[in-house]
Write a structure and sequence with these properties.
Elements (H helix, E strand, L loop, with lengths): L4 H23 L3 H122 L7
Helix pairs in contact: 1-2
């Protein structure tokens, strides 16, 4: 993990503070010098704290931006998935409707063909019955004519 420059500065100040104190004692630094050094150290500490707080604020802001971007990406992916699901459902519904329409048309055509076949069969039966009736009528007429000739003789039909 990379060390932050502010932390490195703070560590360096902590390490060198005892050395400065020894050097100041050895040279006989005055109280004003010590007070000025203490004030500089206090200001440096405040500056480091402010920089750390600013870095934390930037980090939190970046985290918030990243979370918002992830949320937007997730929402976009969810929306696209919903749109795709809706589109697929519409395609499937259309396919079901077309299949139902084809099945209905096929059933109507089958029923129509059955109806036409029944009608053709009925007409054929009627035609057969009519033919048989005519044949029967001709046969009866022939029998009646034959019977009439036999009963009246050959002169019955002469005029």
């Amino acid at each position: 993990m990379k060390k932050h420059p502010v932390r490195q500065l703070a560590a360096a100040l902590i390490v060198f503070m005892p050395l400065q104190g020894l050097a100041a004692d050895a040279t006989g630094a005055s109280a004003d010098d010590l007070a000025a050094a203490g004030e500089r150290i206090r200001q440096t500490g405040e500056q480091i704290r402010a920089e750390v707080q600013a870095a934390r604020a930037r980090l939190e802001a970046r985290k918030a931006r990243d979370e918002e971007a992830q949320k937007r990406a997730a929402d976009l992916a969810r929306q696209k998935a919903e749109e795709e699901k809706s589109r697929q459902a519409a395609v499937e519904a259309r396919a079901r409707q077309e299949a139902a329409a084809r099945a209905e048309k096929t059933e109507k055509e089958r029923l129509q063909a059955e109806r036409e076949a029944r009608e053709a069969k009925l007409q054929a039966e009627k035609a057969e019955q009519e033919r048989e009736r005519q044949l029967d009528a001709k046969r009866r007429a022939a029998e009646a004519l034959k019977a009439a000739r036999a009963s009246a003789g050959p002169k019955a039909f002469e005029e």
